[in-house]
Specification:
By secondary structure, the chain is an alpha/beta fold. The protein is 48% helix and 13% strand.
């Protein structure tokens, strides 16, 4: 009786060729990612100590949020912090503008997107990423504090990313400051009434965040946090960050 062996694709099979081409592209992509990390790691550490400020790309210069972000950027720069944003328009432009007018570096970690964001013109240091996750890692590695202005999915993504890393001990405890209490109150109420109540997070986890509306008090809170320990990570904290 004849045995029907499984059909083995010929080398010229278009499907096999496409799979081979895709595998080759994926392999080369890994080298591109490594190169992106190496370039950023070599270029950017000189900007520390630095504070990252996140917020909506859709905020216009006429909006009150824009003026607050510009004020925060300037005060952080005057206090000796490099100020890092995502390099785009809106809140990112405002905070870069404020920092650009001050004595410390205004930094934009830009991202290539299909339909969005050209870099704003207020950057002393501009670095562009292809991959969101490489960009996120550099935000975390470079920043000693995170300031969250009102924003959308991207801002929420960054907030939850930093909270998760602090909560799980992947990075040290850092100031995570939410600006505009009216904007964030609904989210914070839900976190306490739902996540804490259902034991999805620890009772003390909401305390990883502070809500501060006054720009100068934001700067003061960052200094207060590091008053007794300094801005440099300990050897153990640096070792932990290697596992990001």
């Amino acid at each position: 009786m004849a045995i029907n062996a499984p059909k083995v694709p010929k080398p010229s099979d278009p499907q096999l060729v496409r799979r081979s081409q895709h595998s080759a592209r994926e392999a080369w992509r890994m080298f591109e990612i490594i190169a992106e990390f190496v370039t950023a790691t070599e270029r950017l550490p000189a900007i520390q100590p630095a504070v990252a400020v996140f917020g909506s790309a859709r905020t216009t210069p006429e909006h009150p949020y824009y003026a607050v972000a510009e004020d925060i950027g300037r005060r952080l720069s005057d206090a000796g912090f490099s100020v890092i944003s995502g390099g785009g328009p809106g809140i990112m432009e405002a905070v870069n503008k404020g920092a650009y007018e001050g004595p410390s570096s205004s930094v934009g970690l830009n991202i290539k997107l299909p339909h969005e964001q050209g870099g704003n013109s207020y950057q002393d240091v501009s670095h562009t990423f292809n991959h969101f996750f490489a960009r996120k890692v550099m935000f975390v590695k470079l920043s000693c504090a995170f300031v969250m202005m009102p924003g959308g999915f991207g801002t929420l993504d960054e907030l939850m990313e930093v909270l998760t890393l602090v909560q799980t001990g992947k990075i040290r405890r850092v100031p995570i400051i939410l600006v505009n209490s009216a904007y964030w109150s609904g989210l914070l109420d839900w976190i306490r009434s739902q996540l804490v109540k259902d034991k999805m997070i620890g009772v003390a986890d909401p305390d990883l965040m502070q809500v501060i509306d006054d720009p100068q008090k934001i700067v003061d809170a960052i200094f207060d946090h590091y008053h007794s320990r300094g801005f440099e990570p300990s050897p153990a904290e640096r070792e932990a960050e290697l596992a990001l």
